[in-house]
Amino acid sequence: MTRRINKIEKTEKGFTINTNSDLAYDEFFTVTYDVSLANAQLSGKNLSNTATTQADNGDKKTDENIVTVTKPALEISKISNKKIYSTGEIAKYTLVVKQTVENAVAKNVVVSDDFNTTKISKPTNVKVVDMNGQVLNNAEITMTDKGFNIETNANLAYNEFFMITYDVGMLNAELSGIDIVNTAKTSAENANEVNVNNTVNVTIPKLAIKKDVNKTAFSSNETAQYKLVVTQTVENAIAKNVVITDSFDKENIVPGHVKVINSEGKELENVDVTITKNGFTINTASDLAYNEFFTVTYDAKLSNAKLVGETIKNTANAKADNADMVEDAKSITIGNEYAYNSTEIKIVVIDGVNSVRIDWVAEGNRYPVTYSVGYDNTVIIPNFLRRRFIVSVEYTFAGSMAGIQYAYETRVFEIRS
Q: What pTM does this model have?
């Protein structure tokens, strides 16, 4: 039977009820009520609650109940997918916030994460999920100059946790060589703040390039064989999207059979090779880690008649999205039949010879060059221009003023390999 209560009087620490009712043998009243223990100052305390009852014609009776108010405690952990990044890489961070006290609930958990520099890119793809992987749709995320703040608007009971993931771009070259420290903090209305640090470094990759050619002197219509090697030389760094360019300082030299081989000896299949009128550009669409390299091989047909007698410089360079350009160059000389970079030859002439003409002969054509005679009656020929050459010397001698005579002498020579 439910009885109507006529009067409840609340006091500072409880209440008094005048039932205005009687109880016979084995009859009873049941009183139920709720008490909020939300005050953080109650955490960790024992609360004694004493109930007293008395009737007009009965003795006073009391009973005591003691409860302990547990204080929730949060712990926070933070990891990054790497400890050392290259400029241009994306760092991926994971935060876990957990409540570790039995019979306790952390109310309205708050999380913040701040870096020690503004040179990083602002965090992106910030996501908050509970222990079941469900997104906290009511979480409020506010970006700051150095990170973010999150009001989860959610609670954590014993062993429950939130997971926060986000990305940060390490794009600024000024980050290289410094410790990038970020501090994550968490607290609740009834739980103290705790924090954790995570430190990473950023390195700048550096490329090296070496260029080789199978020889430095060619005859026309020969084919030059070129090789260049591009290497990334910095530990814990990755050169992103390497681009290689190779160009001649003369036009109409068309590279052929261009191949790009990686460090494992495998030819890259997805490279984009653009041939120009004096070289090529290779977009490898690939990266180079420490001590990894690309080997580029190609050939060049030296068939342009205008190149005969020319020195041709060929310059290769390499760069990446996050690495400065480097270059190396090689030069070759071209003759119709042969071009030499050899030891000089010396011709000794008699008195009266002022100059020596040499006709460098190739394919029936002559290419004359006149050389002056030195003070010691010698002519220095610094290098061979053709395999065959004709030396012609004209000089005067006189027996008397009336008998000046001219002499002309020619010798044909051929260098045999």
A: 0.60
